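[SOLVED] Need 3D model of a two-part complex

Original post:
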Amino acid sequence: MKLTRRGLIAAGAGGALTSGCVAAKLIEPGPYRVERAYTIRVTQSWSDVTPLARQEDGVHLLTRDGPALNQLFAASIAPGGALAFVADRDTPRPRYGADMGDTELVEFVVDSVATWGYQNPESNNLRPQSFAGAQGVRFDLTAQTPSGLQTTGTGLVARNGDTLNVLLFLAPGEHYYGAYAQEIEAIMASATPA
Amino acid sequence: MSDRAEMDARASGQLERDPALNAYLREISCRVAAGYCGDIRLYVMNRPYFNASMAPNGYMEVWSGLLLRVEDEAQLAFVLGHEIGHYAELHSLEQMRVARGRANAAMVFSIIASAAGVGIVGDIIYLGTIASIFGFSREHETESDMLGFDHAVAAGYDGQAGHTLWTHLIAETRASDNPDVRRSETRASIFHTHPLSADRVEALQARAQGASAGETHRLRYRAAIRPFLDDWLRADLRRRDYGQTAVVLDRLAAHGEDIGIVEYYRGEINRIRRGEGDRARAIQHYTNAIAHPDAPAAAWRELGEYASRDSRNEEALGFFTAYLERAPNAGDRALIEARVAQLSGGGQ
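Solution:
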């Protein structure tokens, strides 16, 4: 049943955009490589919808039930790069700097969430946690969609040389966040250098 | 369409529900609106742009970016009076007849975009749609300026407020980091299609010359918005137009109030911008901030970060410890405690 639903998301979203030759990709349980930076292991099937909504270089967007219900951003961002894509090139957006401190890395992610249009994004419970063998920062996040839906998130960031590795999960606090919390924990713990 | 927009506002994540702030603004709007008081339903929206608007059904929005930029009650009364002027003269209905086709098309596109989960695009379309309702003609704007002046002065407010506020907005436009913004003419609202021109400022100046002195109630206004300064300045900073935010901060500091928070955000501009000389300026502003009782605890943390990067470990330890003392429930407590342990020689 669940596998069928994942497949339908991937196929449906892909079908809608066939004229542009882009499609969502079904990710079967197993390893998923993020650029040449790190590999995570998913235990359930996900849809990689990166091609459906323009993303910044190095940013992958995965979902289980559709981006409105859950989003897992898996990214490897070079200095000067961004997590949040903004179509208008003249509009300033948060950019990653290799000299950022730990709290600034979290601020970069939170400001990116604000750039996506979420209201009042706030991080909390920042704590050290390893990410693909590097010392990183784990944090929780709360925000609201513009229409007032409470959104919950959790993130993990770590520098790998000059690049920044990011895992960020966002979902409505009602049901969806809790439903995938265990899977997200497992994904974060599974990250290994690529 | 106005009813639908009002329903959206009520459910919006941007709605500021603080009872004290809402009661205060409603009191001012009623004082200015006089006979129209019963018609007005005012909503404060947390959006970091200068805007107030009033729909033909009496639904009024005032954005936090406006409240941050207005210096006193008299300036706010002028803006509210201006919007009530549009309402009283039925400008919206006139404008909506012109814009109906454009708005309908935008709404359809907005629904499609929303269904596709394109949040930011949907937001832009929403703004564009509302702009169709509130984009008044140059004649309507000038007329409402005069009505705003009359309403505010009749309520006992200072007649200089209108042209002072418009002059400040023009100065903020000139200070923008974005060359396109600097080159453009100022808008008194992001929805108004017509610019805030020099002739509107001059007309208000001329009108004010004959008016008797009124009240500004500056201190009362600042006391009402003080609890929100931190959140509103953070949101303004996220626009990443540091030149404009610096002007806002200068204006907030003009009377020597809230210097701890103002200096902290001046430091934030420099820390985030990372331009030439910004590092030294950030440290100086944070240092200035912590000399004031209203400095956010984060000022000590940022000084600790700079000290740590410069290998001034003893100083860093002192700043981080001071931060944790001032913000015992800080969301990053575990992280900073790990830094303290590291600097003390007992950490990872």
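Edit: The radius of gyration of chain B is 23 Å.
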